[in-house]
Amino acid sequence: MRALLVLLVILGGWESYVGLGAIDELLLPAPSAIAAALVNDRALLWSNFTVTAREIALGLAAALVVGLACAVVVHLFTPARRALYPLLVTSQTIPIPVIAPLLVVWFGYDLAPKIVIVAIVCFFPIVVSTLDALSRSDADRRKLMRSFGATRWQTFRLVEAPAALPGLVTGAKLSLAVAGLAAILAEWAGSENGLGHLVLQALPQFETARAYAAVLILAAFSVALFGALTLAERRLLPWTQSTG
Amino acid sequence: MQTRTTAPPVAPATGIDLDAVRLERVSKTFAASRRGADAVSALQGISLRAGEGEIVAIVGPSGCGKTTLLELICGLMQPDAGTIEAQAAALMAQRDLLLPWAGAADNAALALRVTGLGRAEARERATALLHDFGLAGFEQARPHELSGGMRQRVAFARTLLAGRPVLCLDEPFAALDALTRQEMQDWLAAALAADPRTVLLVTHDVEEAIVLADRVLVLSRCPGHVVAELHVDIPRPRRRTDPELVALRARALEELRA
Lengths: 244, 258
Known about the structure:
The complex is a heterodimer of chains A (244) and B (258). Chain A has 244 residues and is mainly alpha-helical. Helix content of chain A is 82%, strand content 0%. Chain A has helices at 2-19, 31-40, 42-76, 78-93, 96-107, 111-135, 139-147, 152-188, 195-202, 208-236. Chain A starts with a helix and ends in an 8-residue tail after the last helix. The model of chain A has no long low-confidence stretch (mean pLDDT 90). The interface between A and B is medium-sized, with 23 and 24 residues.
């Protein structure tokens, strides 16, 4: 409730600041103008939103699949850990704005390079937090499984993997926060549609309110995804809510 | 075997064949760690045996290698010297080690799943045992919804369902409050009367050892070896106020302090 009040005060201040003509509307459109853009440009915004949403969703999905596979392989095979872990860290030091245009050259203007870029950005938090959760699994539980004559795979499937699920969810949440940013960067490197592309086009056309509306939609989408993930975590991993 | 409840066997010298567990001059030393800790000799030439169906309690000061002893018997580590002959053994640790995401039945069924049994069938067998253990209605309950005593019952069910002739219990009730601990000791005595196994019970609670065991071995300070052996010929069910039990307890404590 208090957060809402603060938001209303900020919006009110913003509105009157612009309304008094203190700042050029091209630089900072009033909240009412952004709201109007949301309504008037809804078809345009929606069609570009679906493009960006697909990039984010598919990129995240790819990062989850590849990241999970990498974490499992690195966890189960000690030699792989030494061989792959430095590479994983290195992959994160690649500056995305630099390679984004290259990826566009390789994969073309359509969906593929965006998915790759979102996946590269999202991959690292997923691998690291999953791997961490896997390697922190209880040594006494592993010993118990060994006393039952369990194979390495059985110990992984029955004990380690379920224990690491909260880590996977944490990684997914972290990567969600940067997935939107990655999608916009990817679109800026070369695209014909998407919210990032819309922003790039709107600014030189003096449609600043439309650009703000696009940013607002993207933010709302990220928050909604985050909320959905948190809800799913509460439903599917209820034991993490209490110390067991 | 049911007769043991009224007439516990005096450890018979019947030879190797009837021994479920036999250790001969077993030693185990843990190497010095790289961080500078000295090498620790946990066990020094320890010999002991447990006959089939016998309940042997092992008491001793903390850090005298009791846990190492059980892990050796369960095959979780190898001795540096000496020989170990033991039937297949299942380990129950002081911490219940239940899986926080699984219900009581699935937790109890863990060892069954390892043997390749399907989820439904394993759960069914575990549920039947949990009913015997007074946990009907708690099959789906996750560990954090169970009391300490209930959790240890689930852990014991899991150990029994491993289907091993030997049970190695490592201070199973140490984490419980005194009252619950006594309840659980009586409960375990009844459970073992119903489903007799060879039991090695490690404990630092002398009373627990005497209430439950046919024979009590007293271990020395680190490195551990057997310094005394007490036969408990008190008929079951045993009362803690039984003068014979109280006298034995005093003797065991004396041996421990020696």
